[in-house]
Amino acid sequence: MVEIENGVPLGIKQLFTSITNLQEGEKVLIITDDNKKEIGEFVYQYAKKHFETTLMVMTPREGHGAEPTEAVRAALNDCDVAFGATTMSLYHSKARLDASKNGRLRWVGLQDYALHMFEKGGLTADFQEVRQVIERVSHYYQGKTFTLTTPGGTNMVCSIEGRKPVFDYGTSLVPGSASFPPNAEVALGPVEGTANGVLVFDGSIPHPLLNLLEEPITCTVKDGYITEITGGREADILRKLLADFDDPSVYNIAELGLGLNKENYLCGHMAPDEGSFGNIHIGIGKNLNFGGHVDSPLHLDMVMKTVTVVIDDYTIMKDGVLLV
């Protein structure tokens, strides 16, 4: 492993060591866009001192999961580790999925980053300890029926029969792996058409138009799709954001992602918000990474706080406290 010099923020050290285990001679690709060049260039300044590093800048994508440029797509197939320091996530893009499946790529998403994240919070976690927690929880995070409730008013039930847990340890250590540090989670994809109930989002919606929520947004769910969105100003923003896609698939309940990094806190940025301990994010839209078949133009995660998760009458988490 390459040694990173003293005086470097701990978060940067973690990116090149415990998160990716980069070795001398490996090739690094950093992808950024016009809105996040500060982050891309910050990572580039450290990476280039130790590795053959390429920095690519593109225009911002319209939504999470949208495809990058053809030049980026080609570059993803000729590197060992790629950092996606972009506004919108490339994790669910076909370009990223294909490169991870077919090549040596280790993917690290740095979308929606801020400089303070390199100094404190989730990137300073002991990622080996985080991994142990995720692996322990994963044994219980599967079954037939998933029930989610919160003090804020959420009450939703769906089938998870036949779906296997998907992990984000916050690390990308082997070819084909992908992570989004400091997010750390275990996730499930609900069976299409089975989710019913009410979702009340009172944490954050990691999107440039929203982020930390000032007031709750209530979503009615019927037969796997959001059918109604109510609340205040932010509910209006979400409603318009989804309607503008003019595609019913964006309302699909796609993911149940339980955050498990205790160093994270809600701060209005995607990775720490989604991986915040005791909270859950509900992904809507594309679910191809979670055993599903909905290839939507969007994957949007929305966070609610202090959750109770019950799978087949077994309580995994109660009011944000892990019981396994």
Write up what this structure looks like.
The protein is an alpha+beta fold and 324 residues long. It folds into two domains: 10-118, Thermophilic metalloprotease-like, CATH 3.40.1830.10; 126-322, no CATH class. It is 19% helix and 29% strand. The protein has seven helices and 20 strands. It has helices at 10-16, 37-47, 70-76, 94-102, 127-138, 233-243, 270-274, and strands at residues 27-33, 52-58, 81-85, 106-109, 145-149, 155-159, 166-168, 178-179, 185-188, 196-201, 204-205, 211-212, 217-222, 225-230, 253-259, 280-285, 299-304, 308-311, 314-318, 321-322. The strands form four sheets. An eight-stranded antiparallel β-sheet has the order 14-13-10-6-5-18-19-20, covered by helices on one side. A hairpin with a 2-residue loop joins strand 18 and strand 19. It is globular and about 50 Å long.
Structural class: alpha+beta
Rg, Å, rounded: 19 Å
Main sheet makeup: 8 strands, antiparallel
- Dominant shape: globular
Average pLDDT reading: 94
Name the beta content range: 25-35%
Total individual domains: 2
The low-confidence parts are none
Query: Order of strands side by side in the largest beta sheet?
Result: 14-13-10-6-5-18-19-20
**Would you list the SSEs in sequence order as H and E?**
HEHEHEHEHEEEEEEEEEEHEHEEEEE
Count of distinct strands: 20
Share of helix, binned = 10-25%
How large is the count of helical segments? 7
Termini separation comes to: 34 Å
List the defining traits of the structure above.
single chain, 324 residues, alpha+beta, Thermophilic metalloprotease-like, 8-stranded antiparallel sheet, 7 helices, globular
